C-alpha cells in the first residue's frame, strides 16, 4: 500500500515554524535567525553564588546606592537652580555702590567751641571716601586683618570658614561662635542687612534692627552666600571694599574710616601712616573695646598685632614694620582732651530733639564752650581732691563756669571715678542750697530800701506754724551776737537774723526775687525758705548769681549760640538764653555785691580769696552736711561749686566754706591766669549808708555838659575802668570794716580839683588838703550821726495769714523793725538846692537840676 505523502510545506511555513524541542529557548519569540544570532552572541550565564541572605543584602545595598546617586544629582541640580535664581534676584535689587556708602539712619551733631574749633560729636559722624581717597597702607591693613584672600575668592572662602570652625571648637565654643570665617564681602552683606530696610513695625528701634542684622546663625550664614555672590557679580572688588570702609562703625560715634581718622587723629584717611592705619583696622574687631579714647594702650597693643599681620603678608618691609612699632599712633589734641562731655550732653538736651538727638541731617552747633577754661577747671578740681581727699573716696563734685550774661564756658558734671557714670550733677542733680540761698533774702530787702548798714537782731527766734510744731532756727555756732548790721548777718551767715529779715520783707517777695533770678520754680513760702530748703541745680544757682553780678538783671544760662544744617549758610536756630528782665534795682544789686564781698573778706568764705582780685560770693551747707556749696564771681567769671555724695551720705566735716571754697579758689585762680585784675564795679557805703555805683555815672561824651564834666572828673579820679581802686576802710560802730567812697578834693596828680571840692561841700563835707599819689577818705568833720533807736524783734504770724505789705521807702541807716514807719529823712543840701531851683520854674527835673548846678559851679575853670 502506498504511504500517504506528507503535506508539502511552504517556505514561509518553514521560516516561521515552531522551534524544535532541541532548539535553545533564548530566541524570546524572535525570528529564528535573530534568535540564533542573539544566542550565539550572549555569554554563558554564570551560576548564582551564595545563599539567599547574601544575595538579599547585596541587592539592598545596590538599590540604596542607586537611590542616593539618583537623588544627589537631582538635589544638587535643584539647589543650583535655586541658588542661581536667588543670586539673580539679589543682583537685580542691588543699587549703585555709591548709594550704599552712608549706612546711618540718623545724622550727626558736630559741636564747635567759642573759637570755632571742634570739641565734641554726637550721633554718628560720617564722611564719604572713595577708592583714591584711602591711603594704600590703610586699605592693606584692612585686607590683612579681615580677609587676606579677598582679591582671590568669589565672595565666600570655604578654607576660611573651615579654619574658623576649627578654632572655635578648639577653644570650647560652638562652631559658629566667635570667629565666623566671613569674608569682607560677607561682612558687607551683613552691614547691608541683606538688603532689608529698617521697618519700625518689625523692630522697635534702630538698635534692635542693627543687632538683628548682625546676629550670627547658620541660617544667616546660608543667606549671606547668594547675597555675597550677587555683590561679587555686580560690583568690583574696589567697590565692595569701599562700601565696607565707609559703613563700618569704628567707635566714638565714627562711621567709616574717614570719620574715624578725623575723630582720632585730626586728619583725612588719605593721610594716615602705617601705625595709625593699623590702629584703625584694629577697631573692626570690637570698636568700643579697642577705641583709643577709651583705652589708648589697649588700642596700641591691638595695632601692634595688625602691624605683625601686615609684615607677615608682605605689606610692610622690615624697616617700615620697625618704624611703625617704634612710633605707635597717638590721639590728636582734641581727641585726647575729651573736653566738654558733660557740656555737650547738656547742649544736646537743651536743643530741639529733631535737630539734635534725633536729627536725620548732619548738624553743626556753635557753642559758648571754652576748651582752655574747661581743662583748667578739671585740673584744679583734680588737684584739690588729690591733696585734700583720701584715696578711694566716692565724694562727688560739680563745677559750672559762666560769664555774667549766662554764657556757660565750662562744666564739670562729676569726678572721673569708677562707677561715676554719665550723670550730670551740674544740670540733673537737684539739691538743697542751704545758706547759698540767703543772698535772695537780702536782695529782696535791699530792693525795698534797706541798707547794708541797717541793723538787725541776732537772737533766738521761734515761729509758730499753724498745724505744726513751733520752728526755732539755730545758728551754726549756736551763739548770738545781738544787734548786728545786715552786712555782718550775711557775711557770717547768721540764720536767726536772716529769718527775721525774711519775715520783715515778706516771704512772697523773697520767693519772687529768687524765682525771677532763675531759681527753682517750686519754692514753698515756708519760714525755713530763707535757709535754702528748696532744691535746685548748680547750673540754676550759678545763673542766679550771674544775675546779681550783672547788676540785678536775670539771665538764662545758655550754651547754644547757633545751629545750622551742614552746608547751609543760614542758621536754623540762634542763641537760646542770655539776659532777661530786671529783678532788682542796680543800686540794690551794687549793695548786695559789696555785702557778698565781705563774705569773702571777713566772713565764712575766706578760703575763696584771690590775692589781688575783688571777689564776691556765698557759702552754703545743708542740714546733716549732705550738700556743700560755694558760688561767687569776679569781674570776668561767675563760678559755682557743689560737693556731696550721690546717695546723700553726709559729708564728714565739710562745709561750704571748706573744700567747696577751696575748689572754687583753685578753679578761679587757674582760669584767671594771665587776665588783668578788674574791680567788681561797686563802692562801699559811707557812714550815712550812701552807695556810689560807677555804672550810674554817664559817659564823658554825653550831650549834657555838666554830666560830661562829672564823668570826666570821676574818670580822672578812677583810672581803672572808671572805678576807685584805693580806698580806706574805716570801721563802723560794730567794728566791721566798711569800704568808703573816695570823694577827694585833689586830682591824681595832686593839683586842686575845684569840681570835687564843690561836690564835697555840697554833700556837707570839708575839702581836705590834697595828698599826691593816694586817694583817701577824710575823717568826717561834722557832728556824729544821731543814735539809732533800739530794734524791735520781728515776730511772724502763722502760715496762711495775709502777708504784710512791703515797707515804704526807708531812711538809709535805720534799724529793721516790724513796728511803725520811719520818719521821713531831712533833705540833704543838694536835694534842698534842687527843690528850690525846681519849685519856681516850670522845667523838667533834669533841666532844672542841670541849671541849678551849672549856676552853682560857675567860675570853675574845669567847666569854662
Automatic annotation (TrEMBL):
Has keyword Iron-sulfur? no
Q: Where is the composition biased (Low complexity)?
A: 17-43, 793-802
Instruction: Enumerate the spans annotated as Penicillin-binding protein transpeptidase domain.
Output: 398-642
Alphabetized GO MF terms: glycosyltransferase activity
Residues annotated as transmembrane: 72-91
Catalytic activity, per the record? [GlcNAc-(1->4)-Mur2Ac(oyl-L-Ala-gamma-D-Glu-L-Lys-D-Ala-D-Ala)](n)-di-trans,octa-cis-undecaprenyl diphosphate + beta-D-GlcNAc-(1->4)-Mur2Ac(oyl-L-Ala-gamma-D-Glu-L-Lys-D-Ala-D-Ala)-di-trans,octa-cis-undecaprenyl diphosphate = [GlcNAc-(1->4)-Mur2Ac(oyl-L-Ala-gamma-D-Glu-L-Lys-D-Ala-D-Ala)](n+1)-di-trans,octa-cis-undecaprenyl diphosphate + di-trans,octa-cis-undecaprenyl diphosphate + H(+)
Q: What is this protein called?
A: peptidoglycan glycosyltransferase
Q: Which family does it belong to?
A: In the C-terminal section; belongs to the transpeptidase family. In the N-terminal section; belongs to the glycosyltransferase 51 family.
Q: Where would I find the Glycosyl transferase family domain in this sequence?
A: 124-310
Give the Pro residues compositional bias ranges: 780-792
Q: What is the lineage of its organism?
A: Bacteria, Pseudomonadati, Pseudomonadota, Alphaproteobacteria, Rhodobacterales
Which species expresses this protein natively? Paracoccus niistensis
Amino acid at each position: 500500500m502506498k504511504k500517504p505523502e506528507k503535506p508539502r510545506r511552504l517556505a514561509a511555513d518553514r521560516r516561521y515554524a515552531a522551534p524544535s524541542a532541541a532548539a535553545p529557548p533564548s530566541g524570546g519569540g524572535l525570528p529564528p535567525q535573530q534568535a540564533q544570532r542573539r544566542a550565539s552572541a550572549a555569554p554563558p550565564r554564570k551560576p548564582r553564588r551564595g545563599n539567599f541572605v547574601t544575595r538579599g543584602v547585596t541587592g539592598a545595598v545596590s538599590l540604596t546606592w542607586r537611590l542616593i546617586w539618583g537623588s544627589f544629582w537631582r538635589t544638587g541640580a535643584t539647589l543650583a537652580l535655586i541658588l542661581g535664581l536667588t543670586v539673580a534676584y539679589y543682583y537685580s535689587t542691588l543699587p549703585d555702590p555709591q548709594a550704599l556708602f552712608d549706612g546711618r539712619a540718623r545724622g550727626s551733631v558736630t559741636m564747635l567751641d567759642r573759637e570755632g574749633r571742634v570739641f565734641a560729636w554726637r550721633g554718628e559722624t560720617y564722611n564719604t571716601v572713595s577708592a583714591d581717597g584711602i591711603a594704600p597702607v590703610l586699605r592693606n591693613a584692612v585686607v590683612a586683618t579681615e580677609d587676606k584672600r579677598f582679591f582671590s575668592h568669589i565672595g565666600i572662602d570655604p578654607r576660611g570658614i573651615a579654619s574658623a570652625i576649627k578654632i572655635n571648637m578648639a577653644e570650647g565654643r560652638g562652631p559658629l561662635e566667635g570667629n565666623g570665617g566671613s569674608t569682607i564681602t560677607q561682612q558687607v552683606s551683613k552691614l547691608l542687612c541683606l538688603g532689608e530696610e529698617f521697618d519700625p513695625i518689625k523692630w522697635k528701634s534702630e538698635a534692635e534692627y542693627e543687632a538683628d542684622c548682625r546676629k550670627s546663625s547658620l541660617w544667616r550664614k546660608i543667606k549671606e552666600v547668594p547675597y555675597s555672590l550677587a555683590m561679587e557679580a555686580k560690583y568690583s572688588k574696589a567697590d565692595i571694599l569701599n562700601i565696607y570702609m565707609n559703613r563700618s562703625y569704628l567707635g566714638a560715634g565714627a562711621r567709616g574710616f574717614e570719620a574715624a581718622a578725623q575723630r582720632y587723629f585730626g586728619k583725612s584717611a588719605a593721610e594716615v601712616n602705617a601705625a595709625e592705619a593699623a590702629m584703625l583696622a584694629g577697631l573692626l574687631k570690637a570698636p568700643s573695646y579697642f577705641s583709643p579714647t577709651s583705652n589708648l594702650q589697649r588700642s596700641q597693643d591691638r595695632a601692634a598685632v595688625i602691624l605683625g599681620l601686615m609684615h607677615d603678608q608682605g605689606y610692610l618691609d622690615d624697616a617700615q614694620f620697625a618704624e611703625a612699632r617704634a612710633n605707635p599712633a597717638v590721639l590728636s589734641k582734641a581727641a585726647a582732651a575729651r573736653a566738654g562731655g558733660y557740656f555737650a550732653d547738656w547742649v544736646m538736651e537743651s536743643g530741639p530733639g529733631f535737630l539734635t538727638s534725633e536729627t536725620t541731617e548732619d548738624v553743626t552747633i556753635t557753642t559758648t564752650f571754652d576748651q582752655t577754661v574747661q581743662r583748667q577747671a578739671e585740673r584744679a578740681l583734680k588737684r584739690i581732691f588729690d591733696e585734700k581727699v583720701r584715696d578711694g573716696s566716692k565724694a562727688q563734685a560739680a563745677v559750672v563756669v559762666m560769664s555774667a550774661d549766662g554764657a556757660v564756658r565750662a562744666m564739670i558734671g562729676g569726678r572721673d571715678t569708677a562707677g561715676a557714670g554719665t550723670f550730670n550733677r551740674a544740670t540733673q542733680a537737684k539739691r538743697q542750697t542751704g545758706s547759698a540761698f540767703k543772698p535772695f533774702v537780702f536782695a529782696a530787702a535791699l530792693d525795698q530800701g534797706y541798707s547794708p548798714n541797717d541793723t538787725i537782731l541776732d537772737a533766738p527766734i521761734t515761729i509758730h506754724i499753724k498745724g505744726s510744731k513751733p520752728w526755732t532756727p539755730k545758728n551754726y555756732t549756736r551763739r548770738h551776737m545781738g544787734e548786728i548790721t545786715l552786712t555782718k548777718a550775711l557775711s557770717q551767715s547768721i540764720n536767726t537774723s536772716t529769718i527775721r529779715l525774711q519775715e520783715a520783707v515778706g516771704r512772697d517777695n523773697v520767693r519772687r526775687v529768687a524765682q525771677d533770678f532763675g531759681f527753682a520754680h517750686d519754692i514753698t513760702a515756708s519760714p525755713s525758705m530763707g535757709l535754702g530748703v528748696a532744691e535746685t541745680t548748680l547750673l540754676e544757682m550759678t545763673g542766679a548769681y550771674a544775675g546779681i553780678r550783672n547788676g540785678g538783671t536775670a539771665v538764662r544760662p545758655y550754651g547754644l549760640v547757633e545751629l545750622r544744617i551742614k552746608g547751609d549758610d543760614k542758621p536754623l536756630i540762634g542763641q537760646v538764653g542770655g539776659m532777661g528782665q530786671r529783678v532788682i534795682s542796680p543800686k540794690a544789686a551794687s549793695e548786695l555785691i559789696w555785702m557778698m564781698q565781705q563774705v569773702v573778706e571777713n566772713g565764712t568764705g575766706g578760703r575763696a580769696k584771690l590775692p589781688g582780685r575783688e571777689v564776691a560770693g556765698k557759702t552754703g551747707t545743708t542740714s546733716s552736711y549732705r550738700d556743700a556749696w560755694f558760688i561767687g564771681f569776679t569781674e570776668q567769671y561767675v563760678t559755682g561749686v557743689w560737693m556731696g555724695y550721690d546717695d546723700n551720705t553726709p559729708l564728714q566735716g565739710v562745709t561750704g566754706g571748706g573744700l567747696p571754697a577751696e575748689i572754687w579758689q583753685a578753679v578761679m585762680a587757674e582760669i584767671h591766669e594771665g587776665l588783668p585784675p578788674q574791680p567788681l564795679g561797686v563802692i562801699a557805703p559811707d557812714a550815712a549808708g550812701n552807695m556810689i555805683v560807677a555804672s550810674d555815672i554817664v559817659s564823658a561824651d554825653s550831650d549834657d555838659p555838666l554830666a560830661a564834666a562829672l564823668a570826666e572828673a570821676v574818670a580822672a579820679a578812677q583810672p581803672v575802668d572808671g572805678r576807685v581802686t584805693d580806698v580806706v576802710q574805716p570801721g563802723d560802730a560794730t567794728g566791721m570794716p566798711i569800704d568808703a567812697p573816695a570823694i577827694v578834693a585833689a586830682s591824681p596828680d595832686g593839683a586842686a580839683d575845684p569840681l570835687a571840692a564843690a561836690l564835697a561841700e555840697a554833700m556837707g563835707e570839708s575839702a581836705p588838703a590834697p595828698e599826691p599819689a593816694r586817694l583817701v577818705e577824710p575823717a568826717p568833720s561834722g557832728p556824729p550821726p544821731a543814735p539809732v533807736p533800739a530794734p524791735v524783734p520781728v515776730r511772724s504770724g502763722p502760715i496762711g495769714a495775709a502777708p504784710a505789705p512791703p515797707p515804704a521807702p526807708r531812711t538809709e541807716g535805720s534799724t529793721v523793725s516790724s513796728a511803725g514807719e520811719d520818719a521821713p529823712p531831712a533833705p540833704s543840701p543838694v536835694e534842698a538846692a534842687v527843690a528850690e531851683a525846681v519849685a519856681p520854674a516850670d522845667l523838667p527835673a533834669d533841666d532844672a537840676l542841670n541849671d541849678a548846678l551849672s549856676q552853682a559851679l560857675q567860675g570853675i575853670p574845669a567847666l569854662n
